[in-house]
Amino acid sequence: MRVFVTGATGFIGSLIVQDLIAAGHQVLGLVRSEQKAGALKAAGGEAHYGSIYQPETLQSGAALCDGVIHTAFDHDFSKFVENCETDRRVIAALGDTLAGSERPLIVTSGTGMANTVPGQPAREDNPVIDSSQIPRAASEEAAQAVAAGGGVNVSIVRLPQVHDPVKQGLISPAIELALEKRAFAYVGEGLNRWPAVHVRDAAPLYRLALEKAQRGAIYHAVAEEGIALRDIADVNGPRLGIAAVSIDPRDAEAHFGWLSAFAAHDMPASSALTREKLGWVPNGPTLLEDLARLPLPAD
User: Fold this and answer.
1) 105 bridge partner residues
2) Which residues pair with 155 in a beta bridge?
3) b or e along 99-135 (b: 16 or more beta carbons within 10 Å of the residue's beta carbon)?
4) How far apart are CA 110 and CA 133, in angstroms?
5) Which of 7, 94, 187, 276 could pair covalently with 264 via S-S, beta carbons 3.0-4.6 A apart?
6) Residue 198, CB-side half-sphere exposure with 13 Å CA sphere
């Protein structure tokens, strides 16, 4: 297949490109600059210039391909709601281009959408929370609207905290905050859990979802169902030379800022159905193993 990949030079997208090419697929990747284009071409892909803020440039790329994997997203969390609505518009534009073609469209979301049974891991078949409560749900709402329009084979990959020894999803800004405040904080007892997957395990799941092209499928790229925030703090604090400390839930917003929306939430997630459907077997390092190898900041 010839596959259009948005976010093709990003943290996850660059590895998806490598995996697709290794499996014999051709890749047309969305890039914003000559530098990014050079990296994509070096990996064996073809560059398509555009931006998520110019949806028509994504449409022209999608029109040239047999399927689309959409991973591009603006991760500036200071304008999270706005960025989620941008993603809604991008998915709608991609859907308009693919309408009536039956070509596959793989949309990216987060496992938090399905945390609807308190204390239990989110499952692929759980009811989901809408975007009025979790802004990221805008991506899934857009995917459902595209599917309802007909003629597009839409499926969803939900991501947990995606990590390697350098980046760890929301944990990376939590580390920056801890260094700034000289305390690695968790809320209350810190028993709330975040699921995780190594980036090299997440990438092939997208390819498997594309090749399977099961209409309406939802997949969880989850290797570890949940790591307690206290354990994350206990690993990071001593390495950074700062204390791991508990803070009162009433002080969470003042301490964490925008991160307070996530810091106290229990968000475990299961991938049992995904593994069964796709034969996906993650085997990368654990989140805590990668955190133990995290480069220390310069003095």
Assistant:
1) 68, 154
2) 106
3) eeeebbbbbbbbbbbbbeeeeebbbbebebbebeebb
4) 14
5) 187
6) 15
For the cut 60, the answer to whether the pLDDT of residue 299 exceeds it is: no
Q: What distance in Å separates the CA atoms of residue 246 and residue 184, rounded to the nearest whole number?
A: 9
Q: Is the dihedral of CA 63, 9, 262, 77 positive or negative?
A: negative
With H, G, I as helix, E, B as strand and everything else as coil, classify residue 224: strand
**Contact assessment for residue 129 and residue 116, using Cβ atoms and an 8 Å cutoff:** yes
Between CA 62 and CA 103 the distance in angstroms is 10
Cα–Cα nearest to 62, from 11, 18, 25, 103: 103
User: Which residues on adjacent β-strands are paired with residue 68?
Assistant: 4, 105
Query: What would the pLDDT profile of 213-265 be if each residue is shown by its tens digit?
Result: 999 999 999 999 999 999 999 998 888 889 999 999 999 999 999 898 889 99
Rounded to whole angstroms, the Cα distance separating 126 from 117 reads 8
Element at 83 (helix H, strand E):
helix 80-98
Q: What is the pTM of this model?
A: 0.95
Beta bridge partners of 54: 51
Closest listed residue to residue 263, CA positions, set 241, 233, 293, 285 = 233
Distance of alpha carbon 188 from alpha carbon 213, whole angstroms: 43
- Please tell me the distance from the alpha carbon of residue 113 to that of residue 136, in angstroms, as a whole number: 8
As separate numbers, helices (DSSP H) first and strands (DSSP E) second, the chain gives 12, 12
Q: How far apart are CA 156 and CA 69, in angstroms?
A: 10
Rounded to whole angstroms, the maximal C-alpha distance in the chain is 57
